[in-house]
Amino acid sequence: xxxxxxxxxxxxxxxxxxxxxxxxxxxxxxxxxxxxxxxxxxxxxxxxxxxxxxxxxxxxxxxxxxxxxxxxxxxxxxxxxxxxxxxxxxxxxxxxxxxxxxxxxxxxxxxxxxxxxxxxxxxxxxxxxxxxxxxxxxxxxxxxxxxxxxxxxxxxxxxxxxxxxxxxxxxxxxxxxxxxxxxxxxxxxxxxxxxxxxxxxxxxxxxxxxxxxxxxxxxxxxxxxxxxxxxxxxxxxxxxxxxxxxxxxxxxxxxxxxxxxxxxxxxxxxxxxxxxxxxxxxxxxxxxxxxxxxxxxxxxxxxxxxxxxxxxxxxxxxxxxxxxxxxxx
Length: 329
Fold this sequence. Notes:
Layout: H1 2-24, E1 33-37, H2 44-60, E2 64-68, H3 75-82, E3 90-94, H4 97-104, E4 116-131, H5 140-149, E5 155-158, H6 164-176, E6 181-184, H7 188-197, E7 202-206, H8 207-215, E8 220-224, H9 241-244, E9 252-260, H10 265-278, H11 282-291, E10 294-295, H12 303-324
Parallel strand pairs: 1-2, 1-3, 5-6, 5-7
Antiparallel strand pairs: 3-9, 4-7, 4-8, 4-9, 4-10
Helix pairs in contact: 2-10, 2-11, 4-12
Organism: Ramlibacter rhizophilus
Keywords: Signal
Family: Belongs to the UPF0065 (bug) family.
């Protein structure tokens, strides 16, 4: 046995050197870094990913591209990254779905807590509760009265099972104690189009999707889901859900960056360092502010804190989803 170990030792040393060289040379010259987005192009997560890709190019010294792999509540794209080569050239940008997939997706083909390396959070995206332009209510108090008068008749849209709007809608119904008819769409765009056209009554969606519609007065806005009011000009006059009377109602859609399990530690550090630079990029911050998103500046940009936060979110959403009995597949 000792002889075998002695024979294998040089090979192990060579492998270690080669492994270290691979990490030191990251990113590989002329090899693009791909950020997989587990949702359709044009959606809020896709927009964040494309802004982030641009901001990461300089600190990483590489071409960064976006690949959309939508389906099954975001699990198809996530699985694509979980099974990818762990050389740091395939990354995942995912939202709150990292905390909801374990409950939403039956027979999920990976483990959120152990099949990924957590690279740091990117932003927080508030949600807004909006209604069709001809809805009789003009503020949240009037909306509550209208909801009570129209039980069993209210259509609440969402961008599909597992989407941010679906999650917010579930929490809103539970907080109100009123069951509404869920109307799922294949994306936020069609849902907002039907809301503007009056085919559905309400929608709770990310500011990345709703701010321009509110600003253009194409929809009625009733509240935001953050602990404090927002400073975005089009949203600054909207009350929080808590101010409006729904205690402890807070929904923020976060985005984080991930790599396949086993990605070398020093490659992870390079990506995390580049992410920290990207999050301070003035152009990136301006774009995120225009979307109503808040760039992360707290300790959640650190890898361990990012993972801890997602675990806390999983504990928050799991009972909500189990009570609703919904699945993304």
